[in-house]
């Protein structure tokens, strides 16, 4: 989809700002304070949304989300039943 929109460059403090029309905001799923990458190429400036960083979970959250009643995968059982070869503490 290529769409050309005319917008005005405005001065805000010591920076310049360009507004993005709401239909483009919705089409690209943008939100206020989201990071974007500005790409300069062949006399144009392209704006590209930065993919959100994956959420980091705490150890407590990961443990709380475990389903201890779920059946053990065959690969896990094989690993569990393998002979000990080091100084593992079980």
Distance between the termini: 57 Å
Helical percent range? 10-25%
Would you give the CATH topology of the domain at 9-49? Answer: Pemi-like Protein 1, Chain: D
Low-confidence stretches: none
Shape-level CATH architecture of the domain at 9-49: Ribbon
Keywords: DNA-binding
Pfam family, one: MazE_antitoxin
Biased composition (Basic and acidic residues): 81-90
InterPro entries: Antitox_PemI-like, SpoVT-AbrB_dom, SpoVT-AbrB_sf
Task: Give a concise summary.
This protein is α+β, with helices and mostly antiparallel strands and 90 residues long. It contains 3 helices and 4 strands. The strands form 2 sheets. It has a two-stranded antiparallel ribbon. The chain has a two-stranded antiparallel sheet with strand order 3-4.
Can you tell me about this structure?
Keywords: DNA-binding. This is Antitoxin ChpS. Residues 81-90 have a biased composition (Basic and acidic residues). Strands 1-2 form a two-stranded antiparallel ribbon. Strands 3-4 form a two-stranded antiparallel ribbon. A hairpin with a 2-residue loop joins strand 3 and strand 4. The model has no long low-confidence stretch (mean pLDDT 90). The chain has helices spanning 22-28, 59-64, 74-81, and strands at 9-12, 15-18, 36-41, 44-49. The longest helix is centred in the last third of the chain and has 8 residues, at 74-81. It has 90 residues and is an alpha+beta fold. The chain has a domain at 9-49: Pemi-like Protein 1, Chain: D (Ribbon). It is 23% helix and 22% strand.
